Amino acid sequence: MLFNFNLKSSILLIFFVHGIVFSLLLLKKGVQHQSKESFWLSLFIFLSSLYIAPFMLGYAGWYSKQPYRDIMFYIPFQQLFLLGPIIFFYVQSLLNKSSQLFQKDFIPFVPAIAYFIYTLIVFITDKLVLHQYYFYADERDKDLSTWYQVAGLFSMMYYVFLSLRYYAIYKKIAFQVVSFAETILFNWVRQYLIALLVILSLRVLFFILNPEWDEFGNKFWYYLCFSILFYYISISGYSNAIKTVIPYQASSLFNHDSSYLLHEEKGYEMNEIIKELVNETDAITITDIEIWKQKIEDLMIVDKAFENPILTLTDIAEKLATNPKQISQVVNQGFNMNFNDFVNSYRIEAVKEMLKNGEHKKQTLLGIAFGCGFNSKSTFNRTFKKQTSLSPKEYINKLENTAKDLNK
User: Fold this and answer.
1) Is the pLDDT of residue 274 over 80?
2) 3-state DSSP assignment of residue 215
3) Ranges for the HTH araC/xylS-type domain (predicted)?
4) Same fold flag, 7-245 and 282-407
5) What is the pLDDT of residues 17-55, one digit of tens each?
């Protein structure tokens, strides 16, 4: 088989092979665990591998010899209209375990289907009917046509932006309804999406400033950056073991509806809560706020509800025999904090109290943090520094220095 090994073709070949391998591993993982996000990511990684294939094979000499040239011409390697929707549905399935595809969700795939039909017509006309190049009379790969590249580029940018918007809503909800938000934020997904959006934006900018950049040989740096990015998400997505516990459905993003459904295993469908979080409508009286504030404080101080490392808004609502929306409003309006910060403030106070009593001399600092409800060392350190302006060790040193001064 023809393959001219050079710097460009060899580098892209490494990413291509690894992409195919990760795609198969993710597919296996999806089958074994019935994991929708693994299926979506497997498809995205596979399409990303095909996306760099024309340039990998082009640098390897496939456009210059038959039958390789016809393979490049008639196989639509670059599915530009599929990449965007696939990455969006991957993000949706990752953040929302209860997400389902509805009939209207297939609309984003219409352009990809239309392009596939177009490539099929080109193949049938040139190879089966006329037996000569008709559509390919100019001998230029249709996948690299300017109109398709530009349209596909903006399609990807749109769905990356939509994915970032979806993530932003997820993050907002996480801090409002659970006390362990930082452990389920999937920061690597957000970082990948931002990096991908930057790369796509730079490609648009360079094309505007230098139209000749459309030439085949000038695109290597872009495909190299894209390869690094999809390789990053391959590793991160495969190794990621965090399970989302606050799934929500945002299929209404397509019609800009501000109503989002939060679904928890306990059966609550808190549509109204999410409306409150997104639109910040309605209010309760000052008297009601004060009454509920006292009830919530009693639950925290007396029952030590904060020691539950997976405490949620729903848990508090059940204990106080009310609805989660009521608790959400009181915490936001009465304590001027989101639910995550509110619960963590009690956890930090409990840690501080234990440190004052010398518990750090009997057990590890991490043991104290976990006993007070934290389930992540990094979250504990970050929250402690945020609320005290000191790291835990600095706080302990300050306590010991104060004790020494008092004993003098």
Assistant:
1) no
2) coil
3) 296-398
4) no
5) 999 999 999 999 889 888 888 999 999 999 999 999 999
Q: Do 276 and 127 form a contact (C-beta atoms < 8 A)?
A: no
- What CATH homologous superfamily does 282-407 map to? Homeodomain-like (1.10.10.60)
Rg of the chain on CA atoms, in Å = 27
Quick one: tokens of 393?
């060790």
Q: Report whether CATH 1.20.1070 matches the domain 7-245.
A: yes
- CB 111: neighbour CB atoms within 10 A? 17
**Encoded amino acid at 16, one letter:** F
Contact in structure between 129 and 152 (CB atoms under 8 Å): no
Q: Under DSSP, is residue 334 helix (H, G, I), strand (E, B) or coil? A: helix
Tally of residues, the chain: 408
- What is the pTM assigned to this prediction? 0.83
Instruction: Give pLDDT tens digits for 349-393.
Output: 999 999 999 998 999 999 999 999 999 899 999 999 999 999 999
